[in-house]
Amino acid sequence: MPAHLDSFTHPLRYLAKWLLVSLLIAALAGTASALFLLSLDAATAYRENHPGIIWLLPLAGFAVGWVYLRWGSTVEAGNNLLIDEIHDPKSVVPLRMAPLVLAGTVISHLFGASVGREGTAVQMGGTLADQLTNALKLQTQDRRILLMAGISAGFASVFGTPLAGAIFGLEVLVIGRLRHDAIFPCVAAAILADQVGLAWGVHHTHYAVAAVPALTAWTIVAVAVAGIVFGLAGRLFAGATHRLSAFLKRHVAYAPLRPLIGGAVIAGAVWAVGTQRYVGLGIPVIVEAFAQPLPAWDALGKLAFTVVSLGTGFKGGEVTPLFYIGATLGNALAPLLHLPFPLLAGVGFVAVFAGAANTPLASTVMALELFGPAIGPYAAMGCVVAYLCSGHAGIYKAQRGAKAPFTRDRREDRAGDR
């Protein structure tokens, strides 16, 4: 084929190929997320109507831990397994990851663990997408893109944020670097998966930031100060979760005993504080953070319950608890910084996630999708500052390129000078 024709038809072939693949990924990931969200709603409703069920949380944790020990040892790494497979492809992710994490997360929510949903959706999206590798006879490079698109589709469909989902799949792999060759598949899969979820009747929570103040020197400085606190909160969350998990693995050899211990601690803590405010997703409290002032200890309570839940081995995600921590922390900081609490709740919602996951771009775009364009400058400032202050020791251990800002650039500059 003449060169000038090939230069025109090659992009068309690329677009046609990945549009078709993205449709398949979206159908799988969007349907799985819809099933997950509907199951989660049912489990949450049952727990709220039967609060005494939390006393069975230790047994539920033991059961899930035993099932993973018996059948899920090769997929227990979850999100980190997907990220590792993108960096160093070895073998197709076992299909059993999807049903195991789905069932494990719903059980965690049913009995009262404090976990999220992003990890489950991402794992299902990536796993189901990877099953297409052999069917479509994809090569290694295409398989990397396939997995990234699956991650984007899972994230987008579970939160109803297609643009943030697309960027998350591109941004989460390597700190400070995006894979441009995967932009179209990630965008297409994320948008289509969100539409598939909506077609199944999934509804996402809406948060209202009533009034966004005009930009002034003080509001920018105040949000930057809050961003430092949000970044430190994300760093504390990630570090505490990893340290607790490592401690228990060293001292409790039999894996199912770890969530049993964690479940007992959580159930006892719920009894001690006299409220289930800090278990489950915590969506009602997040909504409250945008509507009224909340006590300053809500963020600390959710952080503690979530660290114990995830650190002891309960299945689920980290992101929704991070939204809770960020929104309630922003709510508490607002009067100190003389900012409207809905504004700072919205910035905190995404900025703590940005710091803990090292994804400032996806987090900023998520704010635009959830709260509207007016919050954009504040969300960008909060997310970037939180990211810079988080230490880059995030919730995903398989992330690569975690270096101090600008270190590599200075080395390259010195090399160039020589």
Automatic annotation (TrEMBL):
Origin: domain of life: Bacteria
Localization, UniProt: Membrane
Keyword Membrane recorded: yes
Sample GO molecular function, one term: chloride transmembrane transporter activity
Record key words, sorted: Membrane, Transmembrane, Transmembrane helix
UniProt cross-references to InterPro entries, sorted A to Z: Cl-channel_core, ClC, ClC-type_chloride_channel
SUPFAM superfamilies xrefs: Clc chloride channel
Record GO cellular component, one term: membrane
TM helices/strands, residue ranges: 20-40, 52-69, 145-170, 215-238, 259-279, 299-324, 336-357, 377-396
Topology term for the membrane: Multi-pass membrane protein
Matches recorded under PANTHER family: CHLORIDE CHANNEL PROTEIN CLC-E (PTHR43427), CHLORIDE TRANSPORTER (PTHR43427:SF12)
Name the UniProt record assigns to this protein: Voltage-gated chloride channel protein
UniProt source species: Pseudoduganella dura
